[in-house]
Write a structure and sequence with these properties.
By secondary structure, this protein is an alpha/beta fold. It has 27 helices and 13 strands. It folds into four domains: about 190 residues, no CATH class; about 90 residues, Threonyl-tRNA Synthetase, Chain A, domain 2, CATH 3.30.980; about 250 residues, Rossmann fold (3-Layer(aba) Sandwich), CATH 3.40.50; about 70 residues, Arc Repressor Mutant, subunit A (Orthogonal Bundle), CATH 1.10.10.10. The strands form two sheets. The chain has a nine-stranded mixed β-sheet with strand order 6-5-13-12-11-7-10-9-8. A four-stranded antiparallel β-sheet has the order 1-2-4-3, sandwiched between helices.
Length: about 700
């Protein structure tokens, strides 16, 4: 409470004055040390000599004693202190943190003391040191303490390692990090903090994160730690567009103070006294955290959203409670919309170095922070939005994230696009298990096959005694990839075969998470006949772009708000049933998608899963029933079981070179005919016939 008594403007002024005085102090130290060393005279009084009361040093006795101590102790290295304090002055004046610089300087200084140890065993070098006093007495004292050649080599090696570590050069030589991992992380964090002049009312922490987007995007290698295929090289970021919206940021930022006062005046017109406590500038909207006067009901303020947008002359204004605080959030559209590009998201360290199993880029939140979520924890996504809201572009953004992060050996895709417009462009890329499915009846076959694949995976995991895909891949010599199913328009499927589609989607949503199968389902009609109660209950993570009415918003999100979005990628997300968060999704053009697909096709050959491809092409919905050819395999299987006294689905797969689904059907038939027993708790079957 005490901090709130001091206005933000005064806090900022105090911080600015403090930075200036701190910088001037460091500049004074740098100039004093430089002049003291530069005018040092051996004949002046010092810690080692007592000659006369006259001093040649420009700074008098203080300069003489300081210079003699530094030169005697460190020799020529003393000039590094001038560089240190000069740099500290710059960092203070520029309001930059120099914590990492201090650590880096200390390591360099320490390394330069240790490195010459190896030279002290050569007489020529000792004379050189004595004549020019390059390193000073401290470095030579370290040598005098051990006086052994092997110790000199160790000290010098440590010095070289420390120097390389300080310069972040160890990675070039693939050398051990000698416990400096935290320092490396610190350097990556500190060097990203680019701060500019701020409006007094903006929360500094959020603004600094937002301004990180101004940095130049580099085409760096990805940290593909989750990939099974370590030789995978992700597509180049150079094929993506790199646009800048720096002017839009500056214009929006300059209007914050004026908008804050205008907002307070508008509420006053409706006899409601509020105070703007904090402001968070986002790419599309600005969040004003307000504190209403005592006795004002929340609904009274929320119901004024339309009147406030009219009075301020802006688009739709959204008002909601900020959970966990006493404030309300008023989201006001910016005068200029800032662009969020897919390249900016993919090049961010949150995505490149993500520890998530299946990282996907969502966009930027209301504070300008880039959001990356883990699809394996979501574990499925339900997306809704009207035409032009940005839903289809968002699906392309998700697919692009996966294609940049995973090789075809790590992740496979099944794309279902009844509209035959959005996803057909992805045909013939190596990540697909089958060509893009565009017919509703064939889409049902594909979903049915995915359910069978889910059962197959659980059977394999049961045999290995593992509980999830990650544990199975660690044990099995044949690791299984993730499978992500994209359904671009659920409404067309529900109108064709609603009950069947709902059944398969519900099964996948309930059970497929642990075996590495995930579903992303999109629709432009979020009505109750499309998003049924069972589907909604099994998709706790939902995203809504702009919808037509508050009823559609309640259907997809469980509350109103999506009808007030601005379109073009403006969205609300509820992750695993949590509170709604507003994001601006990234834009990726058709040209960028085409270039990405072209690069993937040129570097990786498509290999469809033959069994699934044949099933979908034939249109046989009863692909899991036995044919005459399968009856012959049943007879061969009985003979094989008699001769080997072994019976399992995977055993039949290996011997007859057939797919799992067919082998499972044969095994079920053998169980019905009394050849083998039902599987026990460990998945093992008992042979019921004699040899």
């Amino acid at each position: 409470m005490e901090n709130n008594l001091i206005p933000e403007v005064f806090k900022l002024k105090i911080a600015q004055i403090s930075s200036i005085f701190k910088g001037l102090f460091f500049l004074f130290l740098a100039l004093s040390i430089f002049l003291a060393i530069l005018t040092f005279d051996m004949n002046d009084n010092s810690f080692l000599t007592k000659t006369s009361e006259n001093y040649s040093n420009l700074l008098g006795p203080i300069g003489s004693y300081t210079a003699s101590f530094l030169i005697y102790s460190f020799g020529g290295l003393s000039y590094l202190l001038v560089i240190f304090f000069s740099t500290a002055c710059y960092f203070s004046m520029a309001k930059k943190s120099f914590d990492y610089f201090f650590i880096r300087f200390f390591l360099i200084f320490l390394s330069l003391i240790l490195i010459p140890q190896i030279f002290f065993f050569h007489e020529l070098e000792i004379k050189f040191i004595e004549q020019l006093n390059c390193w000073g007495e401290i470095s030579y004292k370290v040598y005098s303490l051990h006086n052994h050649e092997w110790a000199s080599y160790i000290f010098s090696l440590v010095g070289i390692t420390v120097f390389l570590r300080a310069q972040n050069l160890l990675r070039l030589f693939k050398m051990p990090k000698f416990g400096f991992t935290n320092l490396s992380k610190l350097s990556q964090t500190k060097e990203k903090n680019i701060k500019t002049k701020k409006d007094p009312i903006i929360n500094q922490r959020y603004q600094n994160n937002y301004q990180n987007g101004d940095q130049e995007i580099q085409d760096n290698d990805y940290d593909n730690k989750n990939n099974l295929n370590k030789n995978f090289i992700s597509p180049s970021l150079d094929i993506l567009d790199n646009t800048s919206s720096k002017n839009a940021k500056q214009n929006n930022q300059s209007n914050i103070q004026q908008r804050s006062e205008q907002l307070e005046n508008v509420f006053a017109d409706f006899n409601i006294q509020i105070k703007v406590i904090n402001v968070k500038l986002g790419p599309v909207v600005t969040l004003y955290e307000i504190l209403p006067s005592a006795g004002i009901k929340i609904n009274t303020i929320i119901n004024l959203a339309g009147d406030i947008s009219r009075s301020m002359g802006v688009g739709a204004v959204r008002i909601a409670q900020i959970f966990g605080t006493q404030y309300l959030g008023v989201e006001v559209p910016n005068e200029q919309r800032e662009s969020v590009t897919i390249k900016e998201l993919l090049s961010d360290s949150n995505f490149k170095n993500s520890s998530h199993k299946i990282p996907i880029c969502i966009g930027k939140d209301i504070s300008g922070n880039i959001e990356v979520i883990d699809l394996s924890k979501t574990p499925h996504l339900l997306v809704a939005g009207t035409t032009g809201s940005g839903k289809s572009v968002f699906i392309n953004t998700l697919l692009t994230s996966l294609l940049y992060k995973f090789s075809p050996k790590d992740l496979r895709l099944i794309l279902i696009d009844p509209k035959m417009l959005e996803l057909s462009v992805y045909n013939d890329i190596a990540h697909l298990l089958t060509p893009v499915v565009t017919e509703p009846r064939k889409a049902i076959i594909a979903l049915k096959w995915v359910c069978k694949e889910m059962e197959r995976r659980y059977s394999l995991m049961n045999e290995e005694g593992t509980r999830n895909l990650e544990g199975y891949n660690q044990k099995s010599p044949d690791p299984l990839p993730f499978i992500v199913v994209f359904i671009d328009e659920m409404a067309d499927l529900m109108m064709t075969a609603g009950k069947e589609v709902e059944h398969y989607v519900q099964r996948l949503a309930q059970m497929a998470r642990a075996c590495g199968i995930h579903v992303v389902m999109a629709t432009q009609r979020p009505s109750v006949d499309i998003i049924t109660g069972s589907i909604k209950a099994n998709f706790p993570s939902r995203i809504s772009f702009q919808v037509a009415s508050k009823y559609d918003s309640r259907t997809i999100l469980g509350e109103i708000g999506a009808e007030q979005l601005l379109g073009n990628g403006d969205m609300l997300m509820s992750k695993n049933g949590s509170n709604l968060i507003r994001y601006q999704s990234a834009f990726i053009s058709d040209n960028e998608v085409n270039k990405l697909i072209k690069e993937i096709k040129s570097s990786q050959k498509v290999e469809y899963l033959q069994e699934l491809d044949e099933i979908i092409k034939s249109g046989n919905e009863n692909f899991d029933t036995l044919t005459d050819e399968d009856e012959a395999l049943v007879t061969k299987s009985i003979d094989l079981i008699k001769s080997t006294n072994k019976a399992s689905t995977s055993f039949l797969q290996r011997n007859f070179q057939i797919g799992y689904n067919k082998a499972a059907r044969i095994m079920e038939t053998l169980e019905e005919r009394g050849v083998v027993s039902a599987p026990n708790h460990a998945g093992k079957r008992e042979i019921l016939i004699n040899n």
